[in-house]
Amino acid sequence: MLKRSLLFLALAVAAIAQNSSQLESDEVKRVGIHLQCTCGCNDNLNCNMSSGQCHICKPARAKIFKMQQGGMADDSIVTSLVKSGEFTLLSDPNSYFWVVPYFSLALGGIVVWAVLRKLRGNKLHPAVAGGPAIDHDPDFARYRDVIEKDTEKLD
User: Is residue 71 pLDDT above 60, yes or no?
Assistant: First the structure.
């Protein structure tokens, strides 16, 4: 009778210690986010496959919970599970991803500027540069004379 009572007590403690709310706690999730689930979802151990009852994640979260109850630090839990070969370490998300759109916009502006400069040529057209370059151009002087003769006939 005493053995049965002790066995029942041990099972009750184990059941209470690993209820679903504790396996879904922030402490367990904090560790689980660094490890990749191997069920095929390509997510971390906090994946919600089959309503959070993933056959890989649930036992892994139970291991994490037991290790945390044993007093292990988060880093040592992650290292232990990766060294065992069961899980792969996920790299933390890059916090500089916000730079990509601005970098792309700047790069696009540089490309447009370079194309326009190449199409326009490196030197300015004489008509844009100013008056003195136009006055000394012999071809322009010939056309100007023809235009003036034609406009005199209009008066």
Answer: yes
- Please give the structure tokens belonging to residue 105: 């916009």
CA 48, 50, 51, 53: dihedral to nearest 10 degrees?
-90
Distance CA 8, CA 14 (A): 10
d(CA 123, CA 81): 66
Cα 64-68-59 angle, rounded to 5 deg = 20
Cα(122)–Cα(91) distance, integer angstroms: 48
How many beta carbons lie within 10 A of that of residue 126, not counting itself?
16
pLDDT in tens, 93-149: 666 778 889 999 999 999 999 999 888 875 555 555 445 555 567 778 888 888 888
pTM of the model: 0.46
